[in-house]
Amino acid sequence: MANYTAADIKTLRESTGAGMMDVKKALDEAEGDLAKATEILRVKGLKGVTKREGRSASNGLVRAHVEGGNGTLVEVNCETDFVAKNPKFGELADRMLAQAVAVEAADAEAFLASELDGKTVKEVLDEANAGLGEKIEVRRVARVTGDKVVSYLHKTNPDLPAQIGVVVAFSGDDEQTARDIAMHVAAFSPTVLSREEIDAETVENERRIAEQTAREEGKPEQALPKIVEGRVNGFFKENVLLDQPFAKDAKKSVGAIAEAAGITVTGFARFKVGV
After folding, report:
1. Which of 43-57, 109-123, 212-226 has the weakest average pLDDT?
2. Measuring CA to CA, which of 74, 188, 192, 214 is 20 to 30 A from 155?
């Protein structure tokens, strides 16, 4: 029988994140040598990385960091909610966020290629993949800059880490209203800040669809311009942050709330895990 104790099992599980049976098998094979058992688990895990590449990593968490006029969001994904709440996964996510902040990453591709402790971030993630036994990836990274930035993280399940993250850049002094707007973004998921960010072709297509739908509904010809305009405005309210009815006062738009508070929203980013 291999010479190892329950404390050795606990130590190896905590250091590698591997399952109980895998740890016991590795210790048996290594005859109780912790360093050798760690290497066995690492090799076994890395062999499984390729097999896991095609699997879906739709669970995970979002981390946010704000410092001065810079805000960073990172979405780190895994396969199951069991791993999502694993402390080792949380530590990895913190490490990924710190790296994204350090290299001022604005997209996942450049972030994954950046160097961390002598390896690329992609290689670090592959090693985590091996240790945790699931596909682990950083799906998205965003960086928002402005005069000031606030962040908001939301838990969709109280037993799991935050799965929705928002950063909002603004100018002005009313930080509380900016935070309220960040909460609004989390709840209503706008896709752009202002109408100007939606290209003319998309707007024209919405206008054509609205007119065709109204005609098929048998609406009177003289009423079509007003109906079409109303439906296009509805499209804007669904997608444009400044046009959306504010979460805390639906009678006013987010733009009107910001103006009344003396702030100007200049940018935002929103991640929801798996979406």
Report:
1. 43-57
2. 192
